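User: Can you recover a sequence for this backbone? Please restate the input before giving your answer.

Assistant: Of course. Working from this structure:
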């Protein structure tokens, strides 16, 4: 019976959840123009997407404009875990089979006929990958595979994050140029669901057996939260040379919902589980964009657009604030009529700040066609020893191309494609462990006398093996412009 109790407690407490911030991390970049131009947008935008990239640019969006874009993001990630030596056990490879994830972007801007003013309204999320399935999706559903390499990290996740945003910008003509400032207030909504596999407490002999007969999936469902946030920006323009910066502050999420578990046959009928609730706490990074851009000439089809422009952006995201995931499950739980306690879980993540360098530009080839292109380099947010399937943020090199068609004076139709390359990884000394919630060796310090190695969580490293990853983004959108 103790074995059954330990297994059940592990399931209820060991929620090694995966919030998919782009894989949580964000992927360059929102909107079709952003995909095509290497993720730039901090200084040269002149459409409603400025409400996201830099609200100070909203006055450049003349008249009434409506923008609707959709990114289709595909994450390729493959993990082959190294075999266990004691006891001997091999694992099947884990690959993401969830396919393309749609990320729409809707924004409207209007100047109300007032010179130097721009007002914007938008509904959008971050450019990210919000759905994963690292099991077997051949049946159309994400299924539990007992020897899956990723089973103690993340099997499946769905993330929905939406910003409901209202902002404005205004131009001040000083020093022979134009100083623009802008701000946007936003309500950020997040809903996430995930499935992880947990197993029984073991390891009294120093070996953590990971017995496939004592494992099962746990599903956290519809954990939600709403938080205020915003976007702030400033730009200075002098005869087509433009410099600027924008900032989005960090968000501390505390999503709440419920969970369910699939018990092994050995204890089915012995368990009473009611009023299951779950809280998941995690910090999302803030984002600082800074850039310089230049515009020159006149587009062959539009008097108010440049012949060509080029833009360089530097982007900093402070992911080092995300030290860990905090998982707090609660329920009325009895085993053979005996109440059992539930414990919170602290799971270290140790993410790192990311820095990206982005370059992009456009050229008016004809009156009906504009060409876009660009690329970016981004540092890793995840060190080698912390490589994990709950997000994929290694060093990234992204290349993008796009076309804008102008079939009518008031209509732009855009398409773009970008590919993100990440080098393969070989993890030999991993720092991602299976949590053992009934062990007295607990976080955040793991210095209790019960810890076999002070400073190290109990269990086996789960991420040692071979990794590969890449992203593809297909994007399409339309922008309508009317001078009312």
């Amino acid at each position: 019976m103790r074995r059954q109790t330990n297994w059940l407690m592990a399931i209820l407490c060991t929620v090694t959840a995966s919030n998919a911030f782009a894989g949580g991390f964000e992927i360059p970049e929102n909107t079709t123009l952003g995909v095509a131009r290497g993720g730039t947008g901090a200084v040269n935008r002149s459409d409603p997407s400025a409400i996201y990239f830099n609200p100070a640019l909203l006055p450049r969006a003349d008249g009434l404009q409506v923008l609707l874009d959709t990114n289709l993001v595909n994450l390729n990630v493959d993990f082959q875990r190294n075999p266990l030596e004691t006891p001997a056990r091999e694992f099947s490879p884990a690959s993401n089979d969830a396919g393309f994830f749609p990320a729409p972007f809707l924004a409207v801007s209007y100047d109300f006929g007032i010179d130097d003013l721009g007002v914007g309204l938008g509904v959008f999320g971050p450019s990210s990958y919000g759905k994963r399935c690292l099991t077997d999706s051949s049946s159309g559903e994400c299924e539990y595979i007992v020897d899956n390499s990723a089973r103690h990290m993340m099997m499946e996740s769905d993330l929905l994050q939406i910003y409901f945003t209202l902002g404005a910008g205004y131009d001040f003509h000083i020093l022979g140029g134009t100083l623009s400032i802008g701000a946007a207030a936003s309500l950020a909504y997040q809903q996430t669901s995930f499935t992880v596999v947990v197993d029984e407490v073991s390891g009294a002999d120093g070996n953590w057996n990971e017995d496939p007969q004592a494992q099962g999936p746990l599903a956290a469902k519809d954990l939600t939260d709403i938080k205020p946030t915003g976007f702030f920006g400033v730009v200075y323009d002098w005869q087509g040379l433009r410099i600027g910066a924008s900032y989005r502050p960090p968000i501390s999420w505390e999503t709440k919902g419920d969970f369910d578990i699939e018990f092994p046959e050995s204890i089915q009928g012995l368990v009473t589980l009611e009023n299951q609730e779950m809280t998941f706490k995690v910090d999302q990074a803030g984002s600082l964009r800074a850039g310089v851009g230049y515009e020159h000439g006149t587009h062959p089809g539009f008097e108010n657009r440049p012949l060509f422009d080029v833009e360089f952006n530097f982007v900093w995201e402070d992911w080092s604030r995300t030290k860990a995931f905090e998982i707090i499950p609660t329920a009325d739980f009895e085993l053979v009529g005996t109440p059992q306690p539930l414990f919170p879980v602290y799971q270290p993540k140790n993410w790192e700040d990311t820095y990206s360098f982005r370059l992009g530009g456009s050229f008016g080839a004809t009156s009906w066609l504009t060409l876009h292109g660009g690329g970016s380099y981004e540092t890793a947010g995840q060190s080698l020893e912390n490589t994990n399937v709950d997000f994929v943020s290694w060093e990234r090199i992204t290349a993008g191309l796009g076309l804008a068609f102008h079939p009518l004076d008031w209509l732009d139709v855009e398409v773009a494609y970008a590919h993100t390359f990440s080098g393969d990884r070989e993890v030999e000394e991993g720092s991602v462990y299976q949590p053992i919630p009934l062990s007295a060796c607990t976080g955040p310090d793991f210095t209790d006398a019960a810890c076999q190695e002070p400073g190290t969580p109990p269990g086996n490293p789960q991420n040692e093996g071979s990794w590969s990853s890449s992203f593809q983004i297909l994007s399409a959108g339309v922008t309508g412009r009317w001078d009312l």
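That completes the design. DSSP finds three helices and 21 strands in the chain.
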